[in-house]
Amino acid sequence: MEALDINAAPADLLGMDRGELESMAEAMGEPAYRGRQVYQWIYQRGLTDFSQMLNLPKSMRERLAAQYRIGRPAIDANPVSVDGTRKWLLGFGDHTQAEMVLIPERTRGTLCISSQVGCTLTCTFCHTGTQRLVRNLTAGEIVGQFALARDALGLWPASRATDKLTNVVMMGMGEPLYNFDNVAKALRIVMDGDGLSMSRRGVTLSTSGVVPGIRRCGEELGVMLAISLHAVRDELRDELVPINRKWPIAVLLDACREYRAASNARRITFEYVMLKDVNDSPADARELIRLIEGIPSKINLIPFNPWPGVAFECSSDRTIERFVGILRDRGAVATIRSPRGRDIFAACGQLKSDSVHKRARVAAE
Fold first, then answer.
1. Active-site residue, 348 included
2. Are 108 and 42 contained in the same domain?
3. Catalytic residue among 112, 256, 314, 348
4. Are 112 and 151 members of one domain?
5. Residue 99 catalytic?
6. For the chain, give me the number of helices (H) and strands (E)?
7. Last residue in a domain, options 49, 69, 89
8. pLDDT tens-digit profile of 293-342?
């Protein structure tokens, strides 16, 4: 008989869905509805202390406390930008790290959540892409980011109406469609009315173009979709977003057309980083319009956010205004994203943790 490890860490319930918690309750000799009650305490009320789950029998609360925990990522750093943007450097149990960003605005708040430690991709303009993939985040680690933000903002219970947290985007570190199962499980909890109660229209998944994952996302989740396009010619996108070599622009846009039909989503957002003398010519703007013709969409122009050692520069304000003017003159819905959190490296494309270095230090100790 295998010896019991008395030093083993309690299993974490954060990230478990309703069915898993019902099965847990039944394994403890309790009716399934007790698991549903635990689910609501965790995701509706934000509790991490079993003793406060007062509609559960005392004996069950005691057994839960002995066998399980309801965790949160550790906060290794939490800088705040001069513009109010907040960034969390999050630590996980295996000494890895990822980053999460909150962008507050007057009538809304957007939380940018990571799906991986590091990134599968190597987009040449993106700081995160210089940190190779360490591992996928679990569903609990993804949900934990959202729960941690609610903790920080005092937004429990989950049904509480507020403009402090209106949108969540899978646009932090990593390619979410290369971690589909964990991302999908987490987002179902986020969007569940008995869970974290976020509106489906307030949830956006951003991808660099994993075509099979886009189709699956449309069929199974139906959240808002953002495509990191960044170029209108395959030869340039091959360089900027190397995944394009596997799924070129035409294939990617076909998947976008299919996505809207599958999910009944609103406009697809096309993200387009503005790189000086690279992808910012009037011809590029006209070709962008031609490419997305027939796709209900909006175009989000992102002034490039620099980081140490990068070879690219941001297009001038005049060039960006000329570019967006061409798009609008041809009937496109186009916006220019206002850079936020640049001073703390929290802006789009700037996220990168110290996970690799920290892992090396830990291994050497």
1. yes
2. no
3. 348
4. yes
5. yes
6. 11, 14
7. 69
8. 999 999 999 999 887 778 899 999 999 999 999 999 999 999 998 766 55
